[in-house]
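Worked problem 6 (solution included).
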Amino acid sequence: MSVVARRFRTRLLPALLTALGVGLLATGLLSYTNAVEPAVAQLPLASYNPLPTINPFLLPGGAALPSGVPADRVATRVVIPRLGIDLPVMLQEGAQYGTYPLCDVALYLPYLSQPGEGRATYIYAHAREGMFLPLLIASQSNNGKRLLGDIVQVFTSDNYVFIYTISEVDRHTTDLNKAFEATTEELFLQTSEGPAGTIPKLQVVATYVSSDKANPRDAHPDAHPRMCR
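Solution. The predicted structure is:
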């Protein structure tokens, strides 16, 4: 990599993405993942196999992280055992999927990192049955204190499983600043707190614990996203 390219990746690009994190409030992500929405027609889509994406941060970090992080690693599944959450994770791209977040899957934010890259991985889903609704419900009791210490598993496309523990529950969040400013291996989970158009979101932050090889069958769940708006 040239000196100019390295300087762009390590200095200019993070600065631009931090600014983008602020701008996302006005332009997209934080206006999505809405809860308590009316019933809608379900439009089935073809099964989706997660595709790799180029991520801006390829920096090592954290203890005992796998060496040689592949550039095409992406999150493929998120599991919170105690809450019964188990969802395929994908990148929403392509005209056939539109821009409104899909149902029956979780989505990752491509502007941030993937597990093992030493920064924040950002995964979001609607607060609906079978999705992240249990997170929202748990957060509404004693500000989500019962969530602290819960295990979160994130599987990846190269057959790893990353283990995190929930360390912070941030209700009524209106920006992505904390995620864009992260300098250690962390996981952010987002879901909505109100009906369509509600901006404040629930953000749950989890701290990296460990990682290990996973059974390929566990790391590659069948994904059947549907358009839910």
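Discussion: The chain has one domain: 3-227.
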